[in-house]
Design brief:
This protein has 130 residues and is α+β, with helices and mostly antiparallel strands. It has a single domain, classed as Hypothetical protein (Archaeosine Trna-guanine Transglycosylase, Chain: A, domain 4, Roll). 22% of the residues lie in helices and 36% in strands. Strands 1, 2, 3, 4, 5, 6 and 7 form a seven-stranded mixed beta sheet that branches. A hairpin with an 8-residue loop joins β3 and β4. It starts with a strand and ends with a strand.
């Protein structure tokens, strides 16, 4: 079991994570496993330059791989994997669970790109708890 610290700066998601309505986050990389602990936190002012203003500890219950490109994503690296374009209903479901506003796969793609310096390509994890 590993412990992680993650900040949340996406406005529509903060209150939902704090009150337990949102139980999913998507992060680039492959560092989180089922059974890990995450402490989420927010900032009083400017991110990374101010004190934390809230914390919430969760225990990871599910981790789903996601391999993304600008065109869409799969859940495995297998050549025969199902490919979901960002405007697919499955992408919309993931966006809704992630409290993306509005809850659409294309907005999810935009949020992931912005979170990662404009480059959406790469390996992600859909991390769930609760």
């Amino acid at each position: 079991m590993t412990h992680h610290m993650m900040s949340i700066t996406y406005g529509p998601k903060i209150a939902a994570v704090c009150d337990g309505t949102c139980t999913q986050i998507i992060r680039k990389g492959n560092r989180v496993s089922v059974g890990d602990t995450i402490i989420f936190h927010g900032w009083e002012g400017k991110p990374y330059r101010s004190k934390w203003n809230w914390r919430k500890r969760v225990f990871v219950t599910e981790v789903i791989p996601m391999y993304a490109t600008e065109y869409g994503f799969t859940h495995t690296k297998n050549m025969n994997a199902i490919f979901y374009p960002w405007d697919d209903a499955h992408a919309d479901e993931i966006a809704a669970m992630d409290f993306i506003s509005p809850p659409h796969g294309l907005m999810l793609a935009r949020a992931l790109a912005e979170l990662n310096g404009g480059n959406i390509d790469g390996e992600y994890q859909i991390i769930r708890w609760g």
